[in-house]
Specification:
5 strands, alpha+beta, single chain
Length: 81
């Protein structure tokens, strides 16, 4: 099965973890809920890539690099990457 690649700009509402849905607040203020996360592929200061049951997401962290760094540190603190 070929999964859709989805590019989205926003911020995760909470850490993206395998086994749970991801909640993302978009740059327009709307919220997106994904299907269950099966794999977190990459976490950087500017992007989080993860795979769900249906799609591969490329979440571009909005605002400043500081917000991306904070997300990355949270992932490390929770041993999610």
């Amino acid at each position: 099965m070929v999964k859709r690649n989805i590019q989205i700009t926003g911020s995760p509402v909470y850490p993206i973890v395998k086994g749970s849905s991801a909640m993302i607040t978009g740059k327009d203020g709307g919220t997106t809920r994904t299907s269950r996360v099966v794999k977190v592929i990459k976490v950087s200061d500017t992007e989080i890539q993860f795979e769900t049951l249906n799609s591969v997401y490329h979440l571009h962290i909005k605002d400043s690099p500081l917000s991306g760094m904070m997300v990355k540190q949270t992932f490390h603190m929770l041993n999610l990457i």
